[in-house]
């Protein structure tokens, strides 16, 4: 597995876990009441921070383990890696645009801040996850 693919996997793993943890904590805080009553800001910020740190740590540890097996190729990337990164960015951005449009609609209807922020938050997450999945598929099956 090449350096870039390993980083994508680390990001995917942490993103999915982070989103799951966020949803569980928010639902627990709501305790069957309205979700808009939850103090979501610190939960969201901690989730974002922990996910960033988690992805970095996982990527470093995984890279160190890979470096033991193949010290020469641990951090190399080539044109194929750049092409896959460009493709996955385009795929992910489509979902980010959809989330942005959703936020505009929610603002137009003066929705609660909870719904606006979470639409964008999940838009970023879905964009990252779908883009990562597209990258993994391209690494496994190749670019068409």
Distance between the termini: 20 Å
Let me know the number of strands.
Answer: 0
Largest sheet: none
Quickly give the structural class. mainly alpha
Unreliable residue stretches = none
What's the structural domain tally? 1
Write a concise synopsis of the structure shown:
By secondary structure, this protein is mostly helical. The protein is 81% helix and 0% strand.
How would you sum up this structure, described in words?
By secondary structure, the protein is mostly helical. It has one domain (3-141). The chain has four helices and no strands. The protein has helices spanning 3-30, 40-69, 79-108, 113-141. The longest helix has 30 residues, at 40-69. The protein is flat, with a radius of gyration of 18 Å. The model has no long low-confidence stretch (mean pLDDT 93).
What is the secondary structure topology, with strand pairs?
Blueprint (H helix, E strand, L loop, with lengths): L2 H28 L9 H30 L9 H30 L4 H29 L3
Helix pairs in contact: 1-2, 1-4, 3-4
């Amino acid at each position: 597995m090449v350096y870039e693919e390993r980083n994508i996997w680390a990001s995917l793993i942490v993103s999915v876990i982070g989103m799951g943890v966020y949803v569980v904590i928010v639902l627990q805080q709501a305790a069957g009441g309205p979700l808009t009553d939850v103090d979501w800001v610190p939960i969201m910020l901690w989730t974002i921070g922990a996910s960033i740190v988690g992805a970095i740590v996982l990527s470093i540890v995984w890279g160190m383990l890979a470096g033991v097996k193949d010290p020469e190729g641990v951090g190399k990337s080539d044109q194929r890696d750049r092409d896959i990164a460009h493709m996955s960015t385009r795929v992910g951005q489509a979902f980010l645009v959809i989330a942005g449009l959703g936020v505009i609609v929610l603002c137009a209807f003066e929705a609660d801040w909870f719904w606006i922020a979470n639409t964008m938050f999940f838009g970023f997450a879905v964009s990252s996850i779908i883009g990562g999945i597209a990258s993994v598929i391209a690494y496994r099956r190749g670019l068409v």
